[in-house]
Write a structure and sequence with these properties.
11 helices; five-stranded mixed sheet; single chain; 257 residues; elongated; 5 strands; 3 domains
Length: 257
């Protein structure tokens, strides 16, 4: 489309346009800008307004969608790319987003799997939108990793997600599970009143900061003697998950960190 530019008179020729350069006859670079704005989470309406305000271009929603759809083959290629055979540690966690769905704003969980290979390099293995947490969902995710070439995972660090332990045992039976300490602390402090929270977390620290699993269990006994009668559910959570919380005690500080 044709665009009228009002360039101010400049006696010394020092004026240099920024948005549309001198002698530039098209604005095809706007396509890259639309993709960039889309990747940053701007809505079609936001992109329309931005193009109109900056360039004076009237872009229809269909035009913007056709441009952003060019990302789909690139995304699919990334989603299906081959992976390495062995990962030393794999982390699984979720990022929660508010998205518009059928005229309503709803929460969606994007589950991200990050792997560290045998050379210590970190890579995002994939991102999945979780409709519901279940063993079937995690089986599909882990089997996808196997189909893309992953043969073994030494340690998998996860939150206490529904069905995740059974899925790991089915797909990677030799993998050790490390439940996330931060999530475990948060889950147990849900039962604690605000006035006790500071002292409760301070007394809990020796449990997971212990040098050995035996020492950690001793600290947990002392912790239970002090807080067990007041917050039994918090203690029960640590006892119930201990076999998957204490995995890191087998490894030196470098790997624990």
């Amino acid at each position: 489309c044709e665009i009228e530019l009002n360039i101010p008179r400049d006696r010394n020729g020092e004026f240099e346009p920024v948005v549309v350069k001198k002698h530039q006859r098209d604005v095809s670079g706007i396509e890259e800008q639309i993709i960039s704005m889309y990747a940053k989470g701007m809505t079609v309406r936001d992109i329309q307004d931005h193009l109109h305000n900056i360039y004076g271009i009237e872009a229809s929603p269909t035009l913007i969608s056709n441009i952003t759809d060019k990302l789909l083959p690139v995304i699919r290629e990334w989603q299906n790319r081959p992976l390495q055979e062995i990962y030393t540690v794999v982390f699984l966690d979720a990022i929660h987003y508010k998205v518009r769905l059928e005229g309503q704003v709803v929460n969606k969980a994007a589950y991200m799997i990050i792997g560290i290979d045998i050379e210590g390099k970190k890579d995002v293995l994939g991102i999945w939108i979780g409709e519901n947490e279940s063993a079937k969902f995690w089986l599909n995710v882990l089997n996808e990793l196997r189909n893309r070439g992953v043969q073994d995972i030494l340690i998998m660090s996860v939150d206490n997600l529904t069905g995740i332990s059974d899925a790991i045992a089915a797909c990677f039976p030799e993998t050790e599970i490390q439940k996330c300490i931060v999530h475990q602390i948060r889950n147990s402090t849900r039962y604690v009143s605000y006035k006790d929270l500071k002292q409760f977390t301070a007394d809990l620290k020796p449990v997971y900061k212990a040098a050995t699993e035996e020492e950690g269990l001793m600290m947990l006994d002392e912790f239970e003697n002090k807080w067990g009668s007041k917050y039994p559910l918090a203690i029960k959570s640590w006892r119930k998950n201990w076999h998957e919380i204490a995995t890191f005690f087998k490894y030196p500080p470098e790997i624990r960190k």
